[in-house]
Amino acid sequence: MTVERGSKALAIIWFRVDLRIRDNAALAAAASSGAAIIPLFIDDDGLGSRRKLGGASKWWRGRSLAALDAALRDIGSRLIIRQGIPEAVFDSLIGTSGVRNVYFNLCRDRMEEDVATEGWLRTRGISVERFDANYLHDPVHIRTGTGGGFKVFTPFWNRLRGDYTPATNQPTPRDLRAPQRWPDSLPIDALQVTDRWTRSLAQAWIPGEAAARKRLTKVANNLAAHYQSERDRPDRDGTSRLSPHLAWGEISVDEIWRRLDRKLGEKALPLLRQLGWRDFNMHLMQEFPDLSWRPMQAKFAAFPAKDDDSSLRAWTQGKTGYPIVDAGMRQLWQTGWMHNRVRMITASFLVKDLLIPWQRGEQWFWDTLVDADPAQNAGNWQWVAGCGADAAPFFRVFNPVLQGEKFDPDGRYVQQWLPELARLSALAVHRPWTASAAQLSKAGVILGKTYPHPLVDHGQTRRRALKAYEQMGRSRRP
What we know:
Rossmann fold, alpha/beta, disordered N terminus, 5 strands
């Protein structure tokens, strides 16, 4: 519904995981309507069926909302923050302010709730316009030849790449017409998380749209052309690091595609393929809503995983005795982020060396990653565990020593995050238990004291994992 400027119509732009003012379809539509606009964010964390945010995500969200509020104030508006179930919040606003229109971008991991909220609004006589602005595709439009959902990435990617055309860049409003009277709002500080742990997150990241766009410029100018050759090196700045900005929609996925494709053409494909993988995991969650806790392959319910609190604690604290694993886990704790190659190594170690259920790792990542996303986190954990769609075969067990030596050949990554090993040579840093007594003494390393002995013998645990896999397979036979 379009209204004339100067009318008394009021509209809400409901922000979700699209905390930006540029290339935001819902915001652009609201601004062009001519109505006075109330920008709204509803904190419904942990309410209803909503999964409670992890600590790192909650910290990022608070900073991102503060950045959004500042950007809105630059164009004559402000962010209204309410807490509660969306229907109750809308009921209050509609009853007290006379709102007649609501604009929002879909939150794909909450489709059922979005549809229900939209239906409820319409029963109250509210005009609703929703947009699909946070992914490259609508799962309804990309199906297999039999009409089902894709479960293998490569054909999915080929179809997506062939069908996808970046959406037109949405105009950025220069000003938003303010309501005559602003509704009550929680202060922006109410959603800020400040504690001892988050201080290190603040040193590593600047949440918000401005930082996201600055990072995209660096990616387009310096990183994307070399992504394929640099992406697996955790000791280098070779990945985009756009994932937390995408998780909260501080930058549009369409804008990333347009920018990289325009600047680099075919050279951008390896990085654009990662955007496709992000869509693929979302596609899986649409098909399989229980992705975060139930294995997609039913046979894995019989896998003999076991809870081991002591081993899990050693893994979370980066004290397994395998340097590449421990470096990754400490990078995660200190920065809220871990290099993608190391994510695979640490996940494989938890599930296949320690036989701890993958759901425990998914939960830890959910709590500590600044880029935690329901579909990405669960889909990637199931891929590594071997129980998801397009999964790495279970018998592919990452060797943490060989992985470290291959992808961190100079040992710089390990030495950065494990300062107690910083004086070991590159030859010994990935396997300190093989160093001579003289080498250890010179480097100031005392195994079992300054750095732990290996928690397990990888050769033995690999054979144990493969045996468990074979037994699981036999248990499914008639």
